[in-house]
Amino acid sequence: MEVDDGSNHSWADLPEELLEMIRKRLDSRIDVYRFRAVCTSWRSSISLFYKQSPRVPLKLPKPIRAHAYLSQVTICRVELVDDSEDSSSSSSMAWLTKVEESTYGDIQLLVPVSNRQLRTDSPGMMPKMLNLLRFRLVEITKACSLKLASGSPHGINKVVLLPSSTNRNTNEYGVLAIFHEGKLGSGGSMRRNGSL
């Protein structure tokens, strides 16, 4: 058994095989951004042009009858990285944001409650440039956002996609939605291709 001699080890010194295992498990562009923010050698080890999160198409039943898709979003706490010994100041400089990937692969920062795009020109808001070597994204949870092909989803507040079994490779899902002032509706069984 090897004993730790107390010396500090750098993240940049991780073996390439371990880095490759980590890279294979990055599920979204935000995960890639977080990976690249660890250190400069990790930043250069993976391209920004990463696979886009898959959109799950849906055909909504009556009374809505619209084509829509579910888009994965990540709720994050954005905080300033403070390398000093007293890191209590970094906790006071934090923002809660919803991170969503646009259809063009760009990252959008949204206000979690209203889904409005975060404005960078207001005092006390996010900086115009978010250098992930200076800021840390702490993932709180992942969620789905419902988007209609024809515009915004009127009357639908929240959507949850539930696997119909405990098997991770399942092809069947159930859809629950909160709509029209708090009513709960279900979409029954949905196949991965999006038909309800």
Automatic annotation (TrEMBL):
- Where, if anywhere, are coiled coils annotated? none
Q: Could you tell me the superkingdom of the organism this chain comes from? A: Eukaryota
Q: Report the Pfam families cross-referenced here.
A: F-box-like (PF12937)
Q: What is the lineage of its organism?
A: Eukaryota, Viridiplantae, Streptophyta, Embryophyta, Tracheophyta
Domain F-box stretches? 11-46
Q: What is this protein called?
A: F-box domain-containing protein
Q: What InterPro entries does this protein's entry cite?
A: F-box-like_dom_sf, F-box_dom, SCF_F-box_domain
Q: PANTHER family per the record?
A: F-BOX DOMAIN-CONTAINING PROTEIN, F-BOX PROTEIN SKIP23
Question: What's an example GO BP annotation here?
Answer: protein ubiquitination
Could you list the residue ranges that cross the membrane? none
